[in-house]
Amino acid sequence: MNRPTPQQLIKAAATAALDAAHDLVPEWLPDGHKRGQEWEAINPVRDDTRTGSFSVNLATGRWNDYADPDAKGGDLVSLLAFLSHCTQLEAARQIDRRLALGLFQGNGGQLPAALQVADNRAKAQECARNEARAKRVRVAATARSIWRDSAPAGNDHPYLVRKHLPALTARINRQRLVIALHYQGEIVNLQFISAGGEKRFLCGGRVVGCYSPIGRITPGLPLYICEGWATGATIHLDTGAPVACAMNAGNLEPVALSLRARLGDTFKLIIAGDDDRKSPDNPGRAAANKAALSAGALVTYPQWPEGSPHTLTDFNDLHVWHLNHGSRDHAEI
Length: 333
Description:
- The chain is α+β, with helices and mostly antiparallel strands.
- The chain has two domains: 6-111, Zinc finger, CHC2-typedomain (DNA Primase, Chain A); 153-324, no CATH class.
- It is built from ten helices and 15 strands.
- The strands form three sheets. A five-stranded antiparallel β-sheet has the order 1-2-3-4-5, covered by helices on one side. The chain has a five-stranded antiparallel β-sheet with strand order 6-7-8-9-10, with helices on one face. A five-stranded mixed β-sheet has the order 11-13-12-14-15, with helices on both faces.
- A hairpin with a 2-residue loop joins strand 7 (171-173) and strand 8.
- The relative contact order is 0.08.
């Protein structure tokens, strides 16, 4: 059997490093901390003092510096090469020694076990990716079919009544509101909202990087990016500006980056974040701040009046609270 190529050795080291990411990344970036699947740290390669500007995903190995668009990579070998100012092959050697993989030892022409594991895993991952892509194509076709068969929603739907909102872009299907999610200009998924407010997407459809548009993107007007559709509808009614509803906090950053790439550096983007005041670490604010920093956007949050309960978290909550208390027509953004 032929000797492994440098590319194969690097891939095998990256696979093994990912399995040990929870040990290796804190060793390499000891001033950081774990938030979900992310290790957030300072970037020791530059004069960085703010923890969180540099982030490594412990599940995928992807890493990036939000203040430096050129500092990013897709695996832990490239991360170690970046931190150590060395080639990826030398970084792979360092990982090989640290984990005692035996990748660079002579084996009589036989593939090291770690390399065989990496090859098998890569094949399985590629198969899973192909299956997921095929399913997304099927789901997108289903979404467009359901959307065509759905009628414009009426303003008397219980969810809209409770949220004090008109139907705007929503449609109705089997007594559920239907919200279209767009990706690169096409409908690829739907969100269904029941009368009681329960929400779900079409299973297996694309969500990351998708958004539900309200209003037309227009030069001279800012574009708001928020989480839920009700929040987006509230912002659109209050400002007249277009809104991209990312549907959840984790999707704010992918949507913001996609729109920044599409609209250019000078277009005014504003992240309208949720304020999860009762939750530890306030995930709504954390996600909004991260998206704004990454995409070069502004960020805004609801301004809570004195006496408003801490259960309110977003602009629609504020809108409803004001209307129920008779203070004004809309929540100011």
